[in-house]
From TrEMBL:
It comes from the Eukaryota. It comes from Umbra pygmaea. The keyword Secreted applies. Residues 195-427 form the Peptidase M28 domain. This is Glutaminyl-peptide cyclotransferase.
Amino acid sequence: MTARVLHSEPTIREIGLARTQLRNTQYQTILVCKPGMRINRRHRHTTGTEVLLGSCNPLRMSRVRVVLLCLCGMVALALTLGFYFSSNDASDDDSIHMDDNILFREPDLINDKLTHNPRRFTMAQIKRLAGQVNSGRLWYALLKPILVERLPGTRGSRRVRDHIYSHLEFLSAGWSLEIDSFNSPTPKGLISFSNLLAVLDPSAPRRLLLACHYDSKAMVSASKTPAGPLRRFLGASDAAVPCAMILELVTALDIQLKGQKQQKSQVTLQLVFFDGNEAFEQPSPSDSLYGSRYLADQMSRTPHPPGAQHTTMLNALDMFVLLDLIGGPDPMFVNHFDSTERWFDELIYAERRLHNLGLLSSHPREVSYFRKDITMGPVEDDHVPFLQQGVPVLHIITTPFPSFIHTLEDTAEHLHSPTIENLTKVLVIFFAEYLGL
Ligand SMILES: [Zn+2]
């Protein structure tokens, strides 16, 4: 996107020239500098803008009052034309940064996500980023502390939440962290739940949301032998591994995320670790998805940008990416939603490039995980409350489900470490390209 900048007192000739250039689509918008404001060098650099004047002076009404009345109508017309053209081509929006000193079009929360394009990495960049994934850290430092029973409102839940919180707090990117607690009636009475939210840059107009659930399912403990120790449900794939993968992803990309935050990009990353995904009895609309139902409701009531009349935090979400039931060998992921098909294609593309670079282990075929040749029905999960309110969803869940789902066998013994590492690399490339890191 290119823009023509006019100072606050454009002459008839300057406006006429700008309008001609608009018609020729040489420029797609016209910027008028606010009185007393300065157009900074960064903006000139990032947008390729031609700047007529480097700074603007307050209007001198006495000199130009009569002429200005005529010009107002022309400037308004030129701006309208500019916005019209700019709305038809927002493919380079991410290279343009909001600047308080420049009158520039507001982010379009409804349409910008539809025209967002990923950055394309070179092979060398892909190698470097994939090399930042550390499977030892993922397994021992990040996953192991989560492999405990973590029922909502219990000490196990609090410990796991503290583990996630303290790890994110330690990263240099500077995450804004929040534990959002609430009480909800359940078949077991009133239970306290806590979602853990992390936002890289809370001031960014748009967000790419990456989520999983950290609670484990309430199941009757059992022992293999009458005298043996009681075994509890640990939910290794459901969803301890997805939580650890998200932590590893933001750890591997820590430096790049820090840089992206400093650049004040249009899109930032938000993480959500949901509580209360699992039902206490048979899953039903009222007994399951406690945390995601609560957050979707909260976000739908929060105007965004602050003070907005018609848009909420849900509109800020480019996409809701949900990880679940990951960690077993030979997983298959299918595309569940037409609206995010092009982003599912990006997962396939990331897997293919990593394979061809020899960066995936125990990965015999170019495309083993993300399959478009197979169709499966949608799966009830934490995305549902967001999907119902129109948020685009990318659901990365193993289908068919692993054989050990919701059994005491969903433990570390049934996980496949190379697969977890491979999938984390795929996600690293996917998120880094989406966010333009
Ligand atoms: Zn489950």
